[in-house]
UniProtKB/TrEMBL annotation:
This is Helicase DnaB. Residues 312-384 form the DnaB/C C-terminal domain. Residues 19-248 form the Replicative helicase loading/DNA remodeling protein DnaB N-terminal winged helix domain. The keyword Cytoplasm does not apply. The gene is dnaB. Keywords: ATP-binding, Helicase, Hydrolase, Nucleotide-binding.
Amino acid sequence: MTATTFDPQAGYIVTASTAFVNFNDQTFATFYQPILGPFAFSLFYTFRARLIPKPTISNRTMQSELLAHINAGGQQVLEALHRLEAAGLVQTYFQSDEVGDVYVYELQPTLTPEKFLTDNLLSILLLEEIGETAFNHLIEQSRQYKLASPNVNLTNISHRFFEEFHINSQSITATPKTITDARKQSPIEKRPSLTAGMKTDFNWSTLLHLLANQPIVSSDLENNHELILLEHQLYGIDEPTMKKLVLRSIDLQTNHFNPQKFKQIVASTYNVIYTQPSKVAEEKSPVSNKGLTSKDQQLLKTAADYSPVEFLQDLKAQTGGYVTSGERHILTGLVEQEKLTKEAINILTWYVIGDRGHSTLTANFVDTIANNWLQNGVSTGQQALLQLKNFNKQSQEKKKEAKKPQRNNWRKTIKEPMPEWSKKDKSELMKKASSQEVAKLRERIANRKKK
């Protein structure tokens, strides 16, 4: 179950994995904060402040209390929570019982700086956020206490375990019951995988074939298999283009593939300010669909030829803009959900940037459209375009209806009786009064004054 709204009436509990003792505040602040953003960073510490020893389901607290404490709305908290989950810092569990719905937020430890740098997803995201200069500074900072002397010839003379410690041989062959019981009560936890469920249409065999006669250590490719597939997933890089990027990342002296250099080359290649469209989509057979114009069909062909990030880059090229890391995060989320096709995601991007004229994709607006489409059974590019045309048609009809003059049909015609003087002829009305009539009128006025 994936939560789409933050329920203030549900309960929540904060727990931590057994490995949470390895959490490092310095690493969290320097390596994680740039990719999480300030609100997710703050939410994590709010969670950590609510850790209690031996928590149980009955220790639940209303989530409304969490909203009040951090002074934020449900949508803002939900987006921050999703970022913490995606970065592997929180695992969220749910159940519904006789008391009501309850969420369990299990905190995870930070990676060490070295493991963070070797993690393809996190290190690439950090590089894109802070740039090469700050990224290299973090690498130097994390390795500041390692021996810096060059050309040394050291031999490891450290003592081995059994040279200093002695254990009963029977305990080794038959593990004591106390230890086996402890292992059963708390099985070894595995750190959540950030790439679980990631699918790709990249042809790995084709890439190997293209690099077959190139000066590169073949084992390096297999060792960096996940990294290369991830970059393809993020930017839609095809096999021939990937070959060029890999060759640019080779150390010319050793012929070894340099993963850090590869990340920087890809980031600089796909994270630049565009002034011209990068390419024209290769023409395919026209898409025929009732209700679509020739321009609509051309748009669908283009949407089918580009990956989501590449499609957005070309849209930004027309305005001189560039794709932000937040927009890549939004598009990656849509791809990972696997509910909308690539074409539908590109049509959504075109609607927000090209049709509505927004400068960037925003999570709330994109999620609103995507949810509306899914609720109406829209998943393909053709369905998405037809849905937009139908929406625009309804909007225009509402505007026309609003402009029509309103008739006051509710008003009733009231007939008043005409006064007697109005029935007289005009000549009779304009006739001059006689001296006797004038005298009578003066007499009536005098009598009224006496009263």
